[in-house]
């Protein structure tokens, strides 16, 4: 019990990839040559990683008994009994302390975003997650706070179109997560997540389609924006749109035919088509703007 490997699992480090949204401003703001900004953004990334792990620990403590009934969550350290409650609380205090200290090193504004993120997630965990639609918006807001920390928080002005695109893609991922949970939990869905009784596959499919379309349109408008062309000194970013469209369509395909989408941080790296689309988008985008 309380083996180092189990304590690490409790932190869910595989979820830290979500904090990569912090680097969007660094990439699209042409700020990677400013070593101080790079340092502050990296500090913000690590800070969000530690703080998000604290939230996961709080959730696991609160949902320990419910998780024991879940086909996958029952393997989590607290639900499985491989980590004691005392060890989990101690680890939680440690990671949130480290996260907030790193937030201060990044900037006081980053610290403010971290505190808002913590408050929002605690409200979500202890009540707001049961409110239909609002639950998904809160998830998306958590991602937006990461983007704000990596832009406004360190002094990089964000693009409005890019902010809209970021918000819509996080809504898309949140909605697909709910759609996947309906498949995975089947008849036990309301016992595991009560908000699912208010969702239907048809309703979620409509909202997923709308958010997917908004992602494509907002990203397309970003690539054609005069400000974008001026900043990057190229109008060729529009040629990266096919990678975005392919990745989204592939994700929707997997959602319907393989019932994935419950864990975006893992699912995005399991499918070679999505990995290829993301890699191609990143390489071509970097080549065009650098």
Can you put this structure into words, describing what you see?
The protein has helices at residues 4-11, 24-28, 35-62, 64-67, 77-80, 85-106, 108-125, 134-150, 160-185, 189-192, 201-224, 226-232, 241-257, 264-270, 272-289. The chain is mostly helical and 290 residues long. The chain has 2 domains: 1-158, UbiA prenyltransferase (Tetracycline Repressor, domain 2); 159-290. Helix 3 runs antiparallel to helix 6 (85-106) and helix 8 (134-150) packs across helix 9. The N and C termini lie far apart (49 Å). The model has no long low-confidence stretch (mean pLDDT 86).
> Biggest sheet, open or closed, and with what strands and sense?
none
What distance separates the N and C termini? 49 Å
Shape: globular
The overall number of domains is: 2
Low-confidence stretches: none
Order of SSEs: HHHHHHHHHHHHHHH
Topology-level CATH name of the largest domain? Tetracycline Repressor, domain 2
Q: How many strands in all?
A: 0
Q: β content, as a range?
A: under 5%
The share of residues in helices is: over 70%
What structural class should be given to the helix and strand makeup? mainly alpha
Reading off the top of the CATH hierarchy, the class of the largest domain is best stated as: Mainly Alpha
The DSSP helix count reads 15
CATH superfamily of the largest domain: UbiA prenyltransferase
Radius of gyration: 19 Å
CATH architecture name of the largest domain: Orthogonal Bundle
SSE blueprint:
Blueprint: H1 4-11, H2 24-28, H3 35-62, H4 64-67, H5 77-80, H6 85-106, H7 108-125, H8 134-150, H9 160-185, H10 189-192, H11 201-224, H12 226-232, H13 241-257, H14 264-270, H15 272-289
